[in-house]
Amino acid sequence: MIGVISVASLALSIAVTYSHPTANFYLLPTRAWELGLGALIALGAVPAAKGATFGNAASLGGLVLIFVSVGMIDETTPFPGLAAVPPCLGAAAIIWSGQLQVTTAGKVLSNPVLVWFGLISYSLYLWHWPVLAAARLIGGSPTIDMNTALLCMALSVLLGWLSWRFVERPFRRARNDSPAARRRVFLAAATATGSLILVSGAVMLSDGASGRIPAEMNAVLREASDRGALERKCMSRGIGELPCKLGSASEPVSYVIWGDSHAGAMLSAFDNALSESGESAVAFAKSACPPLPGLWRVDLGKRHNCDGHNADVLRLIDREYPSATVVLVARWALATQSARAAGEAGEAAVLARSGQRPHANESNAILVSESLTRLASHLRSRGHQVVILTSIPEQGTNFPKLIARSELLGQSGEHFIQRRTSRETYDQRNSKITPIFRNVSARYGVQVLSVRDQMCADVCMTELGGKLLYRDDDHLSAFGAHWLVERIMPVMHQRQR
């Protein structure tokens, strides 16, 4: 039964590697097979290794599988699934080979230093995360420098040993087999869990205990993080509903704003600018869905329906807005690089052709180039002007939260100014999409508007006159969007004339 459950669990993990990556990582049904391997060895499902030569070969092979996995698996590797098989088989091989004999790997792992770390490993596992989380909160970034990382490691080991020595070991040695002792254990656990739920609920209901932040700073943060009614309305609107209108409602549609959540963050700004110029637009914005027909976001699953959404938008443009200028806005750097910006948490963005899985020889950049080239050719052949807004600088740090933390910790403004993305980093991050933009501009006359030239001198701006340009690490705030659109709309108008 354990064998059947393990095989089914592995098959499920492989099947949902791309469609449900977060659930695949955290939930029991897709991880049970890893425990199942150890259970099968413990139950003797696989006969113990006989003979020193074969046992040593298996143990060394297991070590090789583990070390190769450490070197090969990175933030872009879909995990678990097939990528989890080598390290798990490696661990299983080491355990299995050492049941009847001391293998070479067994001798290495029997080193007193490694055994000591093995003893405190569970307490160390529990302590290392809050230590790292505290360091990141104080530092204001998920990225930790080497000196801080070494300090965190040393502190985690110390706390792990203290916890093992004064909590774990006494608890293990105590006589806890009586009904009264077991009741005390469960009562203490229930009390701690209930207390945690109550405290967490209170913090959530008080909006993160926002009262601890000075009122003036709180107002700045709320203004920066506000998405606005227009964005909320348009981002949730389906293709079958009435189009999201911007600008002067009485005028014919001059523009189609098409993009992902970066486009959504700019809708209010476009609405204001178009109203002032007496023009009209329709907007089609879908979160995590760049305007790249024929591609889908594998990491978000088929239910995200990015390819279906973009196909519908293109059909609507052809049918309903034959003379409109099409403005494409997206997080192009993420679309081409796949990996997120340095310091940013989250899954890699994995693209594939509609109805297909990713291919090893087809990177995101290749697919983006093909799709964007086809789209530019299609739109220009039908007489549309096409405008592409280049990537908003990715900061890798949620600046409103960083500033709030800096205020609470009494840190100077230099603390968050140093976190800003440099122009050089921006260029590196956009190194794959920039030549694609040059190609479609040269071949099809697409107008490419540079955000970098507006926002990045030596470093990229994050605030202006005490107002934040960002609402998180990569989306513009309402103020930032209005500031940018005020500068790009005259350029767009000049091109149309």
From TrEMBL:
Signal peptide: none annotated. The chain crosses the membrane at residues 29-46, 53-73, 79-96, 108-127, 147-164, 185-205. PANTHER family: ACETYLTRANSFERASE (PTHR23028), ACYL_TRANSF_3 DOMAIN-CONTAINING PROTEIN (PTHR23028:SF53). Residues 242-489 form the SGNH domain. It comes from the Bacteria. Keywords: Membrane, Transmembrane, Transmembrane helix. This is SGNH domain-containing protein. It comes from Tsuneonella deserti. The lineage of its organism: Bacteria, Pseudomonadati, Pseudomonadota, Alphaproteobacteria, Sphingomonadales. Pfam families: SGNH (PF19040).
